[in-house]
Structures are given as structure tokens and as C-alpha cells.
Specification:
Elements (H helix, E strand, L loop, with lengths): L4 H4 L1 H7 L7 H17 L4 H15 L10 H17 L14 E6 L6 H14 L4 E5 L5 H14 L3 E2 L7 H14 L4 E5 L8 H14 L3 E7 L5 H12 L4 E5 L8 H10 L3 E5 L7 E3 L2 H9 L1
Parallel strand pairs: 1-4, 1-5, 2-3, 2-4, 5-6, 6-7
Antiparallel strand pairs: 7-8
The structure holds guanosine-5'-diphosphate.
Length: 295
């Protein structure tokens, strides 16, 4: 599907072979190939530039390890740098020491936010944790129905007050219900728009203020590509996120959005969505993602 980085670097290696130190002049070509690979993987341009600089610094002057091909060593440097940026290990969901743990879902419409809400509840159920889902998207009645249907499918209750109530009030009452019912986690699904708009942001900020979530997860469609960077910046600046879920990774994408999200917000991607079904959620593993981005 994509050209592997090791193949692309084939000609660049010719300048590296036989050297005992990786120097500026002999990694130019290699860095150019890494840059091309990242851009093809849809990593944001600025993020790519920053990354290339970091790789250049790590690679320059690195002694070529005896017995290791300099090209292999370079690939390892690039790979390790990617993993380091994306977080060395998978970071689990935050857990409140005073249940319920409150999770706020944020993101644009169509990214898979409602689906991810149900996926998380199923993930928690498999760990014998109870959840309550809260439907605050009053602008699209179908969104409430969708959450209710998903809730029935996974046998997790859904709190809703229809489309006439105020979203902040629904979130507040949903949290109160979760406390009363002693559930472990309450997951609040919110309205998304096709594009970021001030009204959406201020409503989200109000909901956040009202329920003080332990996690605010930005749901990002992996196909968003370059735009993932702006999206993350805006949500993080205006709402403050604690992590992200990258959806639709089952599609034809190398997942460069993952690198952009992490580099821009400094927050971990906690899960990836790999299909439309409620079971299609996996923990995010930085090393696997690094290999996928590099091809
Ligand atoms: P929302 O508007 O953000 O709440 O998005 P939805 O949860 O309604 O999802 C929008 C569409 O994307 C639906 O058709 C979902 O089935 C689909 N979807 C959600 N997550 C994934 C995923 O990880 N992979 C694929 N292929 N489709 C997904």
C-alpha cells in the first residue's frame, strides 16, 4: 500500500554506508525521505519540520555502532523518536479515587464520537466496571436515538432528557444520576458540528465547568489528516483535553494524525477505533503506530 521507509531510503543509504559517524552531509537525503514519508502519512507540516529537527539532532554525531548498518541505525533513531513523542507506553483511562469517574467526549460531528462513547462503555464493562452514558446532543434527535440504541446493544443505561432540555443541565443531572446509581464511570457524549464554531466551544466549556471531568477526550477521525493539528490546537486551547481517541484507523490511512495530536497537545492518544462495531476499539500502542506511520 505504502512504500516502506527502508525501501525509500535505499539510495539515501549509499551515502551513509561505510561512514563511521552520521554527519550532516550524509543524512540530508535520508532526512528528506523521512520528511516525505511523514507528509504522505498526513502529519501536519509544522509537526514534520519540528520532528525532522529533533531527528537531525539525535542522529548527528551518533557513532555508527560496529556491526550495525548505519541505515538500520538511522531507522531506529527515527522510530525511537516517534515512539518517544507519542508516549513510550499505552496510557490507561484516568480513574477518579471518588467514583464516578467522569469522561467528557469532544469532537466534530461524524468523527465517531457517539460510537466511541459506546465503545468505551463496552471496554469498561469487560473490566467489570459499570457506566452510565449521557446524551447531550439536543440538536440532532437522531444522535440521542443512536446513543440509546447503542446502549441497548451493549446493555449500558443511557441518561437523556430529550431535545428540549439544556445540554449543561442534562450533563449535570446525568452526573447526579450516576452518583445515585453508584456507577463507576459516567461518559458524556456532546454535540459536534461539521466545523468548529464559537457556540459549540462555549457550550462544551460550560459542560466541562459543570461536571469537572477526570478525562476530556478529543475524538479525531484519522482521515482528517493535516487538519488534525488545527483541530487539536483549538480544542486544547479552548477546552483543555486530557487525551484523544483516534477513530477510523481501519481505513486507508497511515495515521499521521496521531503524531500531530500528541506533538501539539502533549496529551496521549488513549484508544484507536478500528471499525464501526462497538467492539472495534483498541488501546493505542505508540510503537505500533510509529511503524505504521513510517510504513
Ligand atoms: P459522531 O457524529 O461524532 O457522534 O459520529 P458517529 O459515532 O455517529 O459516527 C459517524 C460514522 O462513523 C458512523 O457511520 C460510524 O459507524 C462510523 N465510525 C465510527 N467509528 C468508526 C471507526 O473506528 N471505523 C469506521 N470504519 N467507522 C467508524
Amino acid at each position: 500500500m505504502f512504500e516502506a521507509l527502508s525501501d525509500r531510503l535505499e539510495s539515501a543509504w549509499k551515502t551513509l554506508r561505510g561512514q563511521d559517524k552520521i554527519s550532516e552531509s550524509n543524512i540530508q537525503d535520508a532526512l528528506r525521505e523521512v520528511r516525505r514519508a511523514l507528509l504522505e502519512a498526513d502529519v501536519n507540516l509544522q509537526v514534520v519540520k519540528d520532528f525532522i529537527e529533533e531527528v537531525r539532532e539525535s542522529a548527528l554525531g551518533a557513532e555508527v555502532i560496529t556491526g550495525v548498518q548505519p541505515d538500520q541505525q538511522f531507522i531506529k533513531i527515527v522510530h525511537d523518536q516517534l515512539v518517544e513523542i507519542m508516549g513510550a507506553t499505552n496510557e490507561p483511562l484516568a480513574e477518579s479515587n471518588k467514583p464516578p469517574t467522569v469522561i467528557l467526549m469532544a469532537g466534530l460531528q461524524g468523527t465517531g464520537k457517539t460510537t466511541a462513547t459506546a465503545k468505551l462503555a463496552l471496554h469498561l464493562r469487560k473490566q467489570e466496571q459499570t457506566s452510565l452514558l449521557v446524551a447531550t446532543d439536543i440538536y440532532r434527535p437522531a444522535a440521542i436515538d443512536q446513543l440509546v440504541t447503542l446502549g441497548e446493544q451493549i446493555d449500558v443505561p443511557v441518561f437523556q432528557l430529550g431535545t428540549d432540555a439544556n445540554p449543561v443541565e442534562i450533563a449535570r443531572q446525568g452526573l447526579a444520576a450516576a452518583r445515585e446509581q453508584n456507577v463507576d464511570t459516567v461518559i458524556v457524549d456532546t454535540a459536534g458540528r461539521l466545523q468548529i464554531d464559537p457556540e459549540m466551544m462555549s457550550e462544551l466549556a460550560d459542560i466541562k465547568k459543570a461536571i469537572k471531568p477526570d478525562e476530556t477526550l478529543l475524538v479525531v477521525d484519522a482521515m482528517t489528516g493535516q487538519e488534525a493539528a488545527n483541530l487539536t490546537q483549538t480544542f486544547h486551547d479552548q477546552i483543555g483535553i486530557t487525551g484523544a481517541i483516534l477513530t477510523k484507523m481501519d481505513g486507508d490511512t497511515r495515521g499521521g494524525a496521531a503524531l500531530s495530536i500528541r506533538q501539539i497537545s502533549g496529551k496521549p492518544i488513549k484508544f484507536v477505533g478500528v471499525g464501526e462495531k462497538v467492539e472495534a476499539l483498541q488501546p493505542f500502542y505508540p510503537d505500533r503506530m510509529a511503524s505504521r506511520i513510517l510504513g
